[in-house]
Amino acid sequence: MTADPEQARVSHRQRLRAVRALRDSAREGRLSDVTFLHRLRVVIDARRRRDLDAAVGDLPPAGLWARAELAFQGWWDRTFGPRPAAAQLDLRLPPAPGRYVIGRDFACDLRLTHDSVSRRHAMLTSVDGQWMVVDLGSTNGTRVNGWRLQVQTPLRPGDQLDLGLQRLRVVA
């Protein structure tokens, strides 16, 4: 009778590999600080392999996406030259709570015309009086203060919201 690998106890080496995967994903901006700390706690408390898989199973191999993104950016710059960044715009948060979609599509609540913005790029929602932003699977990603979004993230006045190459500054 063989033991189920998911039921096997976690070794120190497996735990260290999981911590490195979390660290690398956080460095690449794929995890927010809160998500990183939550998952780190899960890894530290893990007793079985399935617990580790729950914490890091959805992460890409360390450095893979960063290397691919740098390779693509290098190819793009060599072929077409650097992509021009859009001018920075001020984003005034709506006075009424609700859901507001940001993107290039005419049906979006906030329409941005820069080529790097997806048709349905991100969504603003009001949760208990706090404005949150979530990426809607955009091609070029959404960043708040330089950190790539993976989960719903709060917005505060003064934050920089990057949708592709379009930068928005959140104002009160």
UniProtKB/TrEMBL annotation:
The keyword rRNA-binding does not apply. Pfam families: DUF1707, FHA. Keywords: Phosphoprotein. InterPro entries: Cell_Proc_Reg/RNA_Proc (IPR050923), DUF1707_SHOCT-like (IPR012551), FHA_dom (IPR000253), SMAD_FHA_dom_sf (IPR008984). Residues 100-149 form the FHA domain. This is Peptide-binding protein. It comes from Phytohabitans suffuscus.
